[in-house]
Amino acid sequence: MRKLFYSALIGLVLFEILNVYFIMPMPGSQQMNSIGLAYFLYSWRWIFRSIFCMLILVSFLKTSWKRKWIPIVVLVVLSPVIYAINFKMSADHMFLQTNKLVMADASANKVETSRLVIGVTKNGFAKAYPVQFLGYHHQVLDSLNGEPIIVTYCTVCRTGRVYQPIVNGKYETFRLVGMDHFNAMFEDATTKSWWRQVNGDAIAGKLKGEHLPEFFSTQTSLADWLQLHPNSLIMQPNAVDSTNYVSSDYENGTSSNTLTGTDSLSWKDKSWVVGVKVNRQTKAYDWNQLVAKRIINDQIGGVPVLIMIAADNKSFFAFERNADTDVFSLRSDTLIQSSSQYHLDGTAMGAYASLKKIPAYQEFWHSWRTFNPETKVY
User: Fold this and answer.
1) 320 C-beta neighbours (distance < 10 Å), count
2) Using CA atoms, how far apart are residues 377 and 127, in angstroms rounded to an integer?
3) Category of 353 on φ-ψ map: left (φ > 0), alpha (ψ -120 to 50) or beta
4) Rounded to whole angstroms, how far apart are CA atoms 268 and 365?
5) Degrees to nearest 5, angle at CA 329 with 323 and 331
6) Rounded CA gap, 133 and 241, in Å?
7) pLDDT tens column, 287-329
8) Coil, helix or strand at residue 276
9) pLDDT in tens, 1-26
10) Which residues pair with 278 in a beta bridge?
11) Cys bridge to 39: 204, 276, 280, 376, which one at CB 3.0-4.6 A?
12) What global pTM score does this model have?
């Protein structure tokens, strides 16, 4: 029975470690295709815990201990360790959701205009969510012109996405549960399915294979966003969470953190790319090359496109071109094609059609190629 006691104790410890290992950035864990095993362990965690605890209790009571204080000390020492692993170190306890979302217009804004934001618009309404806040919270639930949205960001992938949090026809809430292949995962409150931040796919649980509808978003500096949308509301800092917000070093690419730092060279794991989607075709553009060229006229899946970066070297946009012969240039943050001129967001400056926006995301190269394995490279 003594062997059973120690075997059950070791089994419990190993289970608790594995339960966290597969969904947190630990050595080797994020390179594995282990989401099925991770979800199984997590879903049945209380059954496993109950079995191990029952075996520990029964073997402890039925064993004749010469020094009964030894197993008691072992249990006392391990209990807080197990508690810390599962609660203090759990993703939703390390990165808390904001308990009070405060929005302000430009006149009351306290966010530096040089900071990056994820911006959304609908029917003349506009909102901006600073990356410095999103990087800590990972998700912000809000609404835009009456439509619910969930604004997400993954610092380890360096990319933001906005979705409609509608699952099975109803509004859903989510919690951060961990990561898979270095991308944040969320768990919905109703079915406990796990959803991937980078593409809105349910990858485990009852709703595996389902997809959250994406809401078009743009990453720019706050200064450029307000120039395009002067009446926009901006998410404001929360004094409670301010010490956890993402630093400007991260946004500027000067952070030395192993998980979130940037490689200044091109096409390295932590290099920046702009990933563009046209229909089901994807293509990656090197950030360094884009900064050097300012504008790229290209094709994706036979569709003429242009990708450009503003003078602040932060704000970027992608559009469809009407024809491959329509070659655009950029002058003082104004897009020019023949006699036509457009604002940064593709809005026409004259009595002609505005440019059609297409999804474009700044992302670490390792993330874009992992979740877009058939991507082309410019």
Assistant:
1) 16
2) 32
3) beta
4) 7
5) 150
6) 9
7) 999 999 999 999 999 999 999 999 999 999 999 998 888 899 9
8) strand
9) 778 888 988 898 899 889 888 998 88
10) 281
11) 204
12) 0.90
